[in-house]
Each structure stands twice: as C-alpha cells, then as structure tokens.
Amino acid sequence: MNLPNRLTILRILLVPVIVLVWIFPYAQFGIDLGVLQFSYVKLPILNIICLVLFSLASITDFLDGYIARSKHLVTTFGKFADPIADKLLVNTMLILFASSNLIPVVPVVLMLGRDTIVDGCRMIAGKNGVVVAAGYLGKVKTVAQMFTIIFVLLNNLPFELYSIPFTDVILWFATFVSIASGTSYFMQLKDYIFESM
Known about the structure:
Blueprint: H1 3-23, E1 35-38, E2 41-44, H2 45-70, H3 76-99, H4 105-127, H5 136-153, H6 166-193
Antiparallel strand pairs: 1-2
C-alpha cells in the first residue's frame, strides 16, 4: 500500500477517535479538562483537543492528494476512499456539533441530503461511463465546511470578542454553496437520471 492510501486510511481512523474524544463521559470518571478564558469567552480544552485531531486529519487530506499527483501514485483505491474519508470527517463533525446543540440541525440535514443526492448522481453517471470531476463550487463548499468546523471548535474566536457571528455566517454560506454545487451536479446529469422515466 502506498503512502497516499495510508494517509487516507489514517484520516478514516481518526474519525472514530474524534467521536470518542468528543462524547467520552469525562465527568463520570472525575476528569475535568478545564477551559481557557479569553475575556468573557470560554474555550473548552476538549474543543482544542478535537481541533488538533481535526487539523491532523485535514492535513492528511492535503498531503495524500498532493503526494498521489506529484509522485504519480494515483490508485483506484485512492479515488474510491479519499472522497469517502473527506465526507466521513466533515459530516461526522457537523453531526456531533448539531447533536451538542452547537449549530442548528437544518443546515446539517441540507448538507447531508446534498451529499446523498450527489453520490446517487455520480453512481448513475458511473454506470453510463461518465466521470464528473469535482467542480469549483464543490471545492468552495469543502473549504467553507472546514472553516465552519474550525470556528465552531474555537467558539467563534476571535470574532466572538467583537460580537461578530462569523461561525453562523460561514455555516450558512457553506450550506448555500453545498446546495448550489449539488444542483449543478444534478443539472449536469439530469438526462441520465431521467432517461428511463
């Protein structure tokens, strides 16, 4: 197994680690991770730990793609596993935040729904021998989701100190771009989707 594929697998393995770190019942075991205080804004140490793990996983995302392309190590497994690893990481974080009431449920449902529809479109396209490359909007969506996750974990710092709801803004921006990119995929492939109706 080559290095890019190992990095992809590492990213997948980090997802359950992040989940366990996030949901572990620390209080039941008498563990107090503590908080950092920035003026009137509190930042739990748990958030920082998860931010480090998320950042590590995100770095593997950049590295596996870069190494695979620059060293000509692109494999069928990599093409299959890399987007799955990305969606597992991002969507798991969003679900954790929604379940913890850190973000609203609606944008998470919309983004997960979009991913499901796009995956269905790609499956139909693949059966027809059509390869749909990741579009510009899809890349913007991923970046916006990454920033959303980072600033949720940072408790909207430093913007919270100035009463700027940056996390809310970028969350809804990510949702809008997600829907727009999903619509773009659907419109490109609608002829294949409806050909047997």
